[in-house]
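Deliverable D2.4 — example input (structure tokens):
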């Protein structure tokens, strides 16, 4: 059963038990109200009416005795009127009593009252005419009848009161039974509700504990934690999402770590170990862009370095030939006249090769400058990675802020649950656990931020390598410019040699100086060419440290 259904069943049961308890309590209160109504509407008025009959009987007895003792006809007439009034009042009281009470004794009392009324009328007829007979009737019949009626009324009052008390006792017993039944149902409902709520809290806490373990592992950098919890309620989707998130985070971190390790080793031909999705797709695109840029730059630099190496070898060869030619010129000064044509050819050849060498040197300089530009572009791409890492760190900071707000909300929930008292205890525990989870989420965010900082350090190392490569290319550019300068001088010297050859008649000393000058220049060119060749080899070795896609 889902947690939603459990909550509905629990609260429905609590509400039903509450309504049932309220209904039973209401029945008990209504029963008590009926008892009070019975006492107020029937019992007390009935007893009052019984007292009224007794008072009227005694008054009738007194008035009848006065009629027999007095001779005042007017007063006797007044007493007769009073007796008639008392008789009427007693009849009304008996009717009221018969409406609220039953029994043989009440019928007997009614018969006694009829006898008393009949004897009274006989006494009134004898009063003033036959006093002796009237006194005898009064003492033998009237007075005993009145006393018996009063005694019966007293007995009826006692019997009526006992019957009423017995009935009230039965009603009181029913009210007590209903009250205890209401209390029992309420207790049973409370116990059942507590058990259901306890099970409900347990069903909530179990996945929360599992999530807590997963977040603790995440905060400790254990992205490979196996989250195996399974359930059939609403927490299943949350558990699946957490399991997927842990797996994806571990996959992304391992993939980025693998690629950055390959970058640090100079391998830019490696493929993605994972498929980046969502916001992580930007990271994958940036890494691909970096690999493509660096691969292109390295390939161009490698081609340029090979071209510089070949050019430097050609320059070295040409310079050596120039040096050999100069030595031959020096040894053949004496044979200058005979060898003038050969020298002219050699000078022309030297001039042509100097021009070719100058062209090759300028090409090597252009290649080195282009390689330097590509290195700058590589550094810009790596700086872009640093900026993306900063954006990721900002996202982690936002997660940390959300965790802080969650802790504040859980604290407010704990305060509200504490105000709710015993009822909110379970929710207070849940709020505390949520606060703990938020704190652990913040720790996990810090762990991820640390991983990103480590990645930034690796990127900075790549920037340093690019800086070293840029310095090496700058040296190659400067040396290429020096070679070009020397070759230009060689070309100018060749021109001077041509002029000197044409003016050979000016003297052998001038030819000797030119030959020595050519020899010095050739040696310098050879040394410079050898140094350039060494720098080209060094540059090629550095480039070979990097593995590109092509």
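Example output (designed residues):
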């Amino acid at each position: 059963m889902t947690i939603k259904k459990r909550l509905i069943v629990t609260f429905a049961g609590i509400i039903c038990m509450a309504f049932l308890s309220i209904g039973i309590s209401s029945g008990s209160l209504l029963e008590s109200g009926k008892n009070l109504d019975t006492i107020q509407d029937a019992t007390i008025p009935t007893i009052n009416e019984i007292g009224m009959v007794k008072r009227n009987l005694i008054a009738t007895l007194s008035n009848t005795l006065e009629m027999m003792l007095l001779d005042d006809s007017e007063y006797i007439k007044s007493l007769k009127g009073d007796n008639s009034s008392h008789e009427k009042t007693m009849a009304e009281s008996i009717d009221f009593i018969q409406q609220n009470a039953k029994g043989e004794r009440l019928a007997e009392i009614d018969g006694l009252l009829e006898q008393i009324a009949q004897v009274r009328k006989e006494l009134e007829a004898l009063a003033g005419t036959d006093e002796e007979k009237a006194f005898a009737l009064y003492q033998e019949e009237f007075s005993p009848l009145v006393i018996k009626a009063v005694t019966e009324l007293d007995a009826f009052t006692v019997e009526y009161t006992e019957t009423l008390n017995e009935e009230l006792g039965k009603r009181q017993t029913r009210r007590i039974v209903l009250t205890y039944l209401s209390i029992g149902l309420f207790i049973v409902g409370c116990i059942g509700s507590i058990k259901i709520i306890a099970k409900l809290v347990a069903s909530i806490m179990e996945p929360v504990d599992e999530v807590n373990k997963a977040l603790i592992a995440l905060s400790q950098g254990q992205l490979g934690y196996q989250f195996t919890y399974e359930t059939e309620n609403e927490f299943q989707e949350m558990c699946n999402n957490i399991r997927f998130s842990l797996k994806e985070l571990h996959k992304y971190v391992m993939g980025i770590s693998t690629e950055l390790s390959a970058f640090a080793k100079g391998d830019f031909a490696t493929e993605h170990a994972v498929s980046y999705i969502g916001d992580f797709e930007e990271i994958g695109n940036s890494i691909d862009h970096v690999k493509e840029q660096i691969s292109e730059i390295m390939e161009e630099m490698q081609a340029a370095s090979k071209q510089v190496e070949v050019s430097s070898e050609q320059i070295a060869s040409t310079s050596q030939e120039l040096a050999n030619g100069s030595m031959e010129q020096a040894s053949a000064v004496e044979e200058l006249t005979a060898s003038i044509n050969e020298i002219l050819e050699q000078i022309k050849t030297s001039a042509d090769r100097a021009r070719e060498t100058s062209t090759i040197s300028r090409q090597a300089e252009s290649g080195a400058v282009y390689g330097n530009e590509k290195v700058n572009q590589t550094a810009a791409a790596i700086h872009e990675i640093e900026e993306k890492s900063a954006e990721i760190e900002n996202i982690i900071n936002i997660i940390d802020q959300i965790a802080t707000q969650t802790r504040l909300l859980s604290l407010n929930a704990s305060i509200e649950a504490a105000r709710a008292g015993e009822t909110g205890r379970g929710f207070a525990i849940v709020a505390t656990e949520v606060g703990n989870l938020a704190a652990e989420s913040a720790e996990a965010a810090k762990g991820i931020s640390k991983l990103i900082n480590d990645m930034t350090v690796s990127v900075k190392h790549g920037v340093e390598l690019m800086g070293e490569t840029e310095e090496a290319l700058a040296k190659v550019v400067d040396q290429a410019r020096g070679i070009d300068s020397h070759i230009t001088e060689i070309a100018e010297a060749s021109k001077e040699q041509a002029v000197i050859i044409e003016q050979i008649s000016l003297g052998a000393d001038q030819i000797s100086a030119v030959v020595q000058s050519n020899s010095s220049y050739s040696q310098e060119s050879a040394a410079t060419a050898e140094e350039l060749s060494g720098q080209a080899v060094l540059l090629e070795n550095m480039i070979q440290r990097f593995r590109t896609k092509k």
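Residues 131-219 form the longest helix (89 residues).
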